[in-house]
C-alpha cells in the first residue's frame, strides 16, 4: 500500500505524466518489495513552491508505507525518485525533499476498511 505524493512547481501541461506515474510505481514497488497493484502515486504540478529562496524547479514528496521502509531502502528510494524527477521534469536532485513514513496497517484505510 505504499503511497507516494509528489508536489512540484513545474507545470505538467504537455508532460507525459503517464510515464512518470508508471516509472514511479514500478520503482517504489521494486525497492520496497510490495506488489505494484497496491502502489499509489499522486503527482501535483504548478504548486506554488520556493526552495532556497527561489522558485526554480523544485519538488516535495511524502511516501507512506506499511512496513518495507528502513534507512537503506529510504536512501534507494530517494535516489531513484529524484532521478525520475530530474529526467522527466528537470527538477535537480538538489531541489527535492522527500519524507518517509512507516505506518501501521490500522492507520491506513482501503476498500472500506483498514489494512
Automatic annotation (TrEMBL):
One Gene Ontology molecular-function label: phenylpyruvate tautomerase activity
Domain of life: Eukaryota
Pfam families: MIF (PF01187)
InterPro entries per record: Macrophage_inhib_fac (IPR001398), Tautomerase/MIF_sf (IPR014347)
GO annotations of cellular component type: extracellular space
Family under the similarity heading: Belongs to the MIF family.
Annotated protein name in UniProt: Macrophage migration inhibitory factor homolog
Amino acid at each position: 500500500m505504499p503511497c507516494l505524493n509528489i508536489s512540484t512547481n513545474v507545470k505538467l501541461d504537455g508532460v507525459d505524466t503517464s510515464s512518470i506515474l508508471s516509472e514511479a510505481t514500478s520503482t517504489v514497488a521494486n525497492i520496497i518489495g510490495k506488489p505494484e497493484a497496491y502502489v499509489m502515486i499522486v503527482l501535483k504540478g504548478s504548486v506554488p513552491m520556493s526552495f532556497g529562496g527561489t522558485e526554480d524547479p523544485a519538488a516535495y514528496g511524502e511516501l507512506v508505507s506499511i512496513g518495507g521502509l528502513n534507512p537503506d531502502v529510504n536512501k534507494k528510494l530517494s535516489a531513484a525518485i529524484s532521478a525520475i524527477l530530474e529526467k522527466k521534469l528537470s527538477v535537480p536532485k538538489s531541489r527535492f525533499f522527500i519524507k518517509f513514513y512507516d505506518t501501521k496497517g490500522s492507520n491506513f484505510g482501503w476498500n472500506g476498511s483498514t489494512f
